[in-house]
Amino acid sequence: MSKKKALPRAERLTVDEFFQSLPVPVFLLNENRRVEKMTPAAAAIFSGFSTAAGGDECTFGRVVNCIHSLDDPRGCGQTPSCEECPVRATILEIYATGQPCRQKEVKLTLGPDGHDCYLVISAELLALPSGCKILLHFEDITARKKAEEKLALTKDILDRAQKVARVGSWNLDLATNIMLWTDETYRIFGLQPGTPVNYDRFLQKIHPGDREYVERKWRAALAGKPYEIEHRIIVNGQVKWVREKAEVETDKRGNPLRAIGTVQDITVYKQQETDKARLQRELLHVSRVTAMGELTAALAHELNQPLMAIMGNVQAAQRFLTPATHGQDPDYEEIREILADVVEDSKRAAETIRKIRVYLKKSLHKPAPLDLNTAIREILPLIRSNAVIKNISLKIELAPDLPPVKGDRVQLQQVIVNLVLNGFEAMTGEGEKELTIRTAGDGKTVAVSAIDTGTGIAVDNPEDLFRPFFTTKNAGMGMGLAVSKSIIEAHGGSLKVENNRGGPGAAFSFILPVYEGD
């Protein structure tokens, strides 16, 4: 054995008091590997005895001997873990080597039910007048270990949840400029977990085109503004989109101390938004083409007038240029006037074709200040020609000094055309047919209405008319009004239909907010 420590006489005289007063589990084992003395706390760990148990009584010694069976290689046999009991093995090793044990953490299985506890063991070999003893100290860390296990489980659940939701979290110490990231945050930014990061390293991952925006928003957050932004980052050469939210903690004087935030990978969501916008543009384009198909006759009529005028003028010019039978020169002034008329009619036809091309063109949603009266006047030639063909009286009631709205000109014109065509189709038979296009404003909103004198709305729920693929027409697709409603709602407005009061027909109308500047 190693050199034994002698216990001073003054201390030997108070060993009993020493053991009785200690609040921690401590045992004194003799050379026969039996418990000679122990503190009351020692009994509480293994046997649940009252704090009165202990002292020179051998009851606890029998209990310890039963549990650990230091003299039996098989252990006590009460549990399957007895032969591998770490406490028993530690004590026997100290007896054999004389080497002290410092803060050894072990897991101990107790009782027939095999419940586990966790201990930290410290042991020292002592040379006392009565022989060599082992001073054994146990610290029960079961509660701490259970808490650590629960914390580890909670962290694992959190890590899994963040991975599923693609949401990471972070903490920034503003005094040290050190950031702490969860594993999912590292994954989102394409870094290995545990890589040291600070705010500057974070900025390096941000897309150069968004870096100034992020810094500006962060400075505003440090000044007390909300921090909820979307921006791009560069990960392994690829662009990703993230959404970040954070709160800044301050001291009593309002000085920022730290920030806690979340970061969510929204790359897939952004791609879906892009695809949705593309499909929406395709749908709007199909809807416009469909409406233009219904206006084919009106288009032919609208183009036929300037083309016929051009033909008539050209034929007249040809006659004027025919060699005079009576020796008179051609009337060049008259020919100039005829050619001027040809130019004007050509411009008129070209303008009609230009408007059709603009109307049918695939384009992005480009909101801008817009006068709805002007937008209506631009499509009136097509609408008026269609009304003439269908023998419908068209009334235009445009409110003077109508305030502008903010919207996409082509899309809003598409809505007006759809509403007017629906009104035309609702008027059948030989009775009076009249459609009124009316605008009105109240200072806060602008309303556009298409009022017909047709059969009115016969469905139980008028809102059904705006559902996709719902139609009351034999050959209808049921998309025109649904698309119109989506356009108006995208402009911050509303679209409704109601039967006329005191007369036949129905009125489709939409309301948009007045443009008050950006």
Question: What descriptive keywords fit this protein?
Answer:
elongated, 6-stranded antiparallel sheet, Beta-Lactamase, alpha+beta, 15 helices, 6-stranded mixed sheet, 518 residues
Please identify the oligomeric state.
single chain
CATH class category name of the largest domain: Alpha Beta
Query: Radius of gyration, Cα only, in angstroms?
Result: 45 Å
Query: At CATH's second level, what is the architecture of the largest domain?
Result: 2-Layer Sandwich
Question: Might you state the CATH topology name of the largest domain?
Answer: Heat Shock Protein 90
CATH superfamily of the largest domain: Histidine kinase-like ATPase, C-terminal domain
Task: Count structural domains.
Answer: 4
The poorly predicted ranges are 9-13, 48-63, 474-478
Give the N-terminus to C-terminus distance in angstroms.
89 Å
Mean pLDDT score: 75
Number of DSSP-assigned strands: 19
Percent of residues in β-strands: 25-35%
How would you sum up the major sheet?
6 strands, mixed
Count of DSSP-assigned helices: 15
